[in-house]
Amino acid sequence: MKKKLVLILLVLVYTLTGCSVDKLGEDESKAPAIIARYPEVSKLNRDKIDAIPQHKPDASYWEVDLRHYDLSNLDITDEYNNLKYADFDYGTVWPKKLPKEFDPEKIMKNGKDPGLNLKKLHKKGITGKGVGIAIIDQGLLVNHNEYKKRLRVYEEIHCLDETATMHGSALASISVGENVGVAPQADLYYIAETSGEHKGEDFIMDYSYVAQSIDRILEINDTLPQNKKIRVIAIALGWSSKEKGYEEVIKAVERAKNNGIFVVTSSLAETYYGFNFMGLGRDINEDPNKFNSYRPGLFWNDLYYNNPDNFSNYLLVPMDSRSVASPTGVDDYVFYRRGGLSWSIPYIAGLYALSCQVKPDITPEEFLKAAVDTGEIITYGDDIKYELSKIVNPEKLIKAIKK
């Protein structure tokens, strides 16, 4: 019943706007985005706090969460060791005095830069223009100014999110964001879905909804002209053969691959010949465009230090210390100190869009090999030297693909 209602709404939108999906490849300045629903902004109802949360080495996400908190009454001049792990946003109210090493405005600005000299490629016109990126994720704040010009379609398939989510806004901005994105002029096609059902206090995974979303993207792609095709799908999920819908999603990925679409997930090693990737960490005051600024990401650095040889053939892309679109407002941004593979997946999708722009007949296998072959190796450490490889080098990658 819900799916039929969505389809009816879409038909109404198409009628009122005078636009159909098969016209999306025409002059994009005249074709309005096709939006099934406008999820409301996400509200963080927060006020003053009594103290800065303390960083713990073994902590996980949101350990020093300062988003939308009022810190104006606090003395935090000696709190740099905690603040350097903080998440904060445009709604965070800072006191007048801060540690000299902690400049929220500068940190936010650096976090918006996709890093690794991607801006140099953008200035040369390598922006993903004409290439379609699809995202399957949670509810999206569709009219955020970071990516609304790039959004072509927003639909929902079994989406349980009542409001926009932080996850969806981050993925959209990392992939195609005007300021934040890897491919700032790629076209965005977005399917919001929930991969399972709530049963009491439990959540039961069901990847059949992801499979349905992939198939819907293939349907949309069939209507697009050859020079505007969707070339990559970013899905910030992995799957297990023990969970419901596994067979359906694996078959759907194969259908996408057979249609010339690269499907980027955290199960990439399963669907693309053992290819592995991880996300990089970066101190908040390090330059995102210098390779030596990067280290293993916070969530896996202990795994790396215990056995660095296990990661010697991984492709590494920026992940931690990123500023992205916030779901709290159409002009809001948020800085996330700690990232996950969900932040790496749209980065790789954006890189593939750039590659498709300069070499339209490129394949995922060719792209992955070139990304590893042109990756950078850095060495760091004092008493013990660590070798970190391969950090993606976008400039060398595009140069190699052009040849």
UniProtKB/TrEMBL annotation:
PROSITE patterns: PROKAR_LIPOPROTEIN, SUBTILASE. It comes from the Bacteria. Residues 128-267 form the Peptidase S8/S53 domain. The active site is at D137, H167, S342. GO terms for biological process: proteolysis. Keywords: Hydrolase, Protease, Serine protease, Signal. Belongs to the peptidase S8 family. This is Peptidase S8/S53 domain-containing protein. It comes from Clostridium amylolyticum.
